[in-house]
């Protein structure tokens, strides 16, 4: 099982949602949560805990990747300098505003 992290990006605001990928099928796993307007990490954690088919290992992976994305945004808020695609192939920038 794999996951895709979808980002909607605006200067100083990041929307993040996670999809679960089964072969060619993509299933939305979480809603979009907008950081720093809300505590996106905690909201994603709560949503994952409600999905009993997601293992603790997978939840940990998702939350660690979410932390990595949020930390990159905090360290460098310029959109073009954070994600080069080569290191985060499971991250898809859906829109920049």
Automatic annotation (TrEMBL):
GO terms for cellular component: ribonucleoprotein complex; ribosome. The keyword Secreted does not apply. Signal peptide: none annotated. GO terms for molecular function: structural constituent of ribosome. Pfam families: PSRP-3_Ycf65 (PF04839). Keywords: Chloroplast, Plastid, Ribonucleoprotein, Ribosomal protein. It comes from the Eukaryota. The keyword Transmembrane does not apply. InterPro entries: PSRP-3/Ycf65_sf (IPR038447), Ribosomal_cS23-like (IPR006924). GO terms for biological process: translation. Belongs to the chloroplast-specific ribosomal protein cS23 family. Part of the 30S ribosomal subunit. This is 30S ribosomal protein 3, chloroplastic. It comes from Tisochrysis lutea. The gene is ycf65.
């Amino acid at each position: 099982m794999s996951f895709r992290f979808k980002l909607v990006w605006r200067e100083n605001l990041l929307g993040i949602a996670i999809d679960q990928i089964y072969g060619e099928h993509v299933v939305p796993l979480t809603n979009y949560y907008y950081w720093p307007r809300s505590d996106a990490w905690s909201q994603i954690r709560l949503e994952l805990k409600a999905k009993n088919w997601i293992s603790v290992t997978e939840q940990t992976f998702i939350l660690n990747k979410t932390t990595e994305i949020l930390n990159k945004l905090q360290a460098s808020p310029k959109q073009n300098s954070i994600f080069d695609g080569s290191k985060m192939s499971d991250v898809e920038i859906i829109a920049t505003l």
